[in-house]
Write a structure and sequence with these properties.
Elements (H helix, E strand, L loop, with lengths): L1 H6 L3 E7 L29 E6 L2 E5 L5 H5 L9 E3 L5 H4 L14 E5 L1 H10 L15 E5 L6 E3 L2 E10 L2 E8 L2 E4 L18 E5 L12 H11 L3 E5 L8 H7 L4 E3 L5 E3 L1
Parallel strand pairs: 3-4, 4-5, 5-6, 10-11, 11-12, 12-13
Antiparallel strand pairs: 1-2, 1-14, 2-3, 7-8, 8-9, 9-10
Length: 262
């Protein structure tokens, strides 16, 4: 059903941010990447906006959310899908205030993350709330159950960020996997047949909780998407222009503001 629906609808993906938790340039750093004049080397925290027909979804809501949304048309957000609780993926929730004029913004997240957000932002969930706070509603999702935002089916994908269980998402022929270190074997079946895969690759050397470039390329080879885009870079990945020339066919480094159409 979801394949039929999305086959007749155009999906557009905009990369709102493609950097790791520190962003690029990193404060206080004078490395060639942080000093680069190439706009593709300036990376806000990691998030995407997805447009399907007249529906707008986001994956994650970063501390850079305000800056990321200012260049875009001001319109309703139909839902935000959250991968996990780390601040670089949740720190922009309070900036949903202006979007509340369109109605409640639904936040889709696991139960563990729901508890974290309510502890961080109790004023949003108090019985008596003062005016001006974001009008948000949490909808609990489970990793083994698909769910819908409007008519759009979302398939959660269990991932691991070192030992922390997190979520990726498949929407039709598109899949988004960030902050990955490993994917359980059974979850690969959810990713078979994707046309466009977005996957994180922190740097070229190993990291305890993030994929290296080589590890990300290995997962891409396993999944065999039609094309793949790398995201969630640190400045240690190197210059965009250099990385662009080093990747296999049909694998591309994403950059802030990049838009792709499915």
């Amino acid at each position: 059903m979801w394949q039929l629906f999305l086959n007749v609808m155009t999906m557009k993906i905009r990369f709102l941010g493609t950097g790791t938790s520190t962003g690029i340039p990193q404060i206080g750093c004078s490395c060639p990447v942080c000093q680069s004049t190439d706009e593709r080397d300036r990376r806000l925290r990691c998030s995407v906006a997805i447009t399907i027909g007249d529906q707008r979804l986001l994956i994650d809501c970063t501390p850079d959310f305000r800056q990321q949304m200012l260049p875009l048309p001001f319109r309703r957000i139909d839902g935000i899908l959250f991968t996990h609780e780390h601040y670089d993926h949740t720190g922009g929730i309070d900036d949903l205030r202006p979007f509340s004029r369109f109605g409640t913004v639904d936040l889709f997240m696991e139960e563990r993350l729901e508890k974290t957000i309510k502890n961080r932002m109790p004023y949003c969930f108090a019985e008596k709330r003062y005016g001006g706070i974001p009008d948000i509603h949490i909808k609990t999702i489970r990793p083994q159950q698909h769910f819908y935002v409007g008519d759009t089916e979302i398939i959660p994908v269990r991932l691991f960020h070192h030992n922390l269980p997190i979520l990726g998402f498949r929407i039709g022929n598109f899949a988004y996997l960030t902050d990955v270190k490993s994917i359980p074997d059974a979850e690969y079946e959810k990713l078979r047949g994707v046309d466009t895969l977005v996957i994180s690759a922190l740097r070229k050397t190993n990291h305890i909780s993030h994929l290296s470039l080589a590890e990300a390329l290995g997962i891409i080879e396993n999944i065999q998407p039609g094309r793949a885009f790398l995201t969630h870079f640190s400045h240690e990945m190197g210059l965009h222009a250099d990385l662009e020339g080093d990747l296999p066919a049909r694998v591309y480094p994403a950059y802030d503001g990049l838009e792709i159409t499915l």
